[in-house]
What does this fold into?
Amino acid sequence: MTLDQAREGQVVVVKDLLGGFGFRRRLLSLGIYPGERLRVVKSGFFGGPILVEVRGTEVAIGRGAASRVVVEPAEK
It folds into this structure.
């Protein structure tokens, strides 16, 4: 699944970033890289950015970018 499909409150692990060098570099600078755990704080149903928590910091990611971040549910 992709990050834009994750539910609010769900903890996920990043598996892959599907994009070019600039896209990957921007997400890496935010701390979003393969193997990192993210918690979805807020995900609006009608578009708009997705708010995720990365290492205690909240980051807003646009829906287009979130659709290119492959994730899977984290083990408890």
Summary: The mean pLDDT is 94.
